[in-house]
Design goal:
Layout: E1 8-10, E2 15-19, E3 24-29, E4 32-35, H1 38-45, H2 53-63, H3 68-84, E5 88-90
Antiparallel strand pairs: 1-5, 2-3, 3-4
Organism: Azospira restricta
Subunit structure: Monomer. Interacts with PqqE.
GO molecular function, one term: quinone binding
Amino acid sequence: MDTANFRPQLDPRFMFRWEPSQEAFIILYPEGLIKLNPSAGEILKRCDGVRSVDEIAADLAATFAADPADVAAGTHSFVALAHEKGWLRPAA
């Protein structure tokens, strides 16, 4: 999947939120939940259907003063995986 211009948003079958009892961001769905690591949570927070994956990666790199190339690689990889799993879909 080419994620460069992909503008991801959470599929409506899932709910994304911070769960205090898990001390983590989670994705809820009818069969259960997925506990996300901090990086995945930060990426999903920005998947609003407006920003491209490149824009999300640039925002993360600036927010966390991290190497843009490393952040871009990780962001693209996670978005591709999340799309394969059905969590993310293209903006309508």
